[in-house]
Amino acid sequence: MSSPGEALTLPNSPLPPLCKLGFRNKSIVLPPFLHRSESLSPTAPISAGFYRLDPGPELVYTYTYDEMKIIVDGDFEISDELGKSVKAVKGDVFFFPKGSKITFRTEKGGLGWYCGQRKKDTA
Q1: ∠82-88-89 over CA atoms, to 5°?
Q2: Per residue in 32-71, pLDDT tens?
Q3: Between the chain's N and C termini, which has fewer beta carbons within 10 Å?
Q4: pTM for this structure?
Q5: How many H helices and E strands in the chain?
C-alpha cells in the first residue's frame, strides 16, 4: 500500500502516474493542478485540479468551456449574471456551462475540485 502523496505507476500504461491523495493533521495536502489529458485527447482535453479562494476580493469568471466543481472544504457564495446566488458548502456539486459568468466570494475560505474541458493554463 502506498502512502499519501506517493505516485502510483501502472505497469505498461501510456497514462501518467496516478496520485493518491491523503490527509495530514486534518489538512488536505494537495498540488494546485493534478492532471490534463492533452497528450491522450488533443481535440477534447480535460483538466482537473483544486481551486482555492481565500477571503478578500471576489472572483468574477466567464467560462469558455464546460466545468464541474465539487466543494471539498469551507464555503463559497456563488452567483450568476442574473443575480441568482447560492451558499455552497462541502459536498455540493456544480455544473458551469460554457458562457456562464460566475462570481465567487468567501468569508472564511474555500477549496473546490474542478474538472473542465480545456487545456492546461487556458483558464
Answers
A1: 175
A2: 445 555 666 667 778 888 889 999 999 999 999 889 999 9
A3: N
A4: 0.66
A5: 0, 12
